[in-house]
Design brief:
Blueprint (H helix, E strand, L loop, with lengths): L7 E7 L10 E9 L2 E11 L5 E7 L4 E5 L2 E5 L2 E6 L4 E7 L5 E4 L1
Antiparallel strand pairs: 1-2, 1-9, 2-3, 3-4, 4-5, 6-7, 7-8, 8-9
Length: 103
């Protein structure tokens, strides 16, 4: 998330077994912002035109289906932009595509 002072770390692990760079599925993880920790679920999929699409659930806040406005995957770099929370995430997909970690 974009914050002036707080550095946020997002770690997600895939509940489904992916193939190569196919990261479609439901990813569960924890957003750590200072002392706060929020459980998140990221729903990643492909649109009919082949582009990535996603929504985000914040389990602890009871917020489901938050639109992810930008989803970009290039090589192992994943970028998500969530306008609703003025946040952006830059992640690294592991070589086996089983984990995503970033800020």
């Amino acid at each position: 998330m974009r914050r002036n002072v707080t550095i946020v770390t997002l770690w997600l692990s895939l509940a489904l077994s992916p193939h190569a760079q196919n990261i479609a599925g439901d990813w569960r993880g924890t957003l750590k912002a200072g002392p706060a920790e929020l459980r998140l679920v990221l729903h990643l999929g492909k649109a009919e035109d082949g582009t990535w699409k996603a929504t985000l659930d914040s389990v602890d806040q009871g917020a489901n289906g938050i639109p992810v406005n930008t989803v970009a995957l290039q090589d192992s770099n994943l970028v998500l932009v969530v306008d609703a929370v003025s946040g952006s995430y830059r992640e690294q997909v592991s070589a086996d595509a089983n984990t995503i970690s970033g800020t």
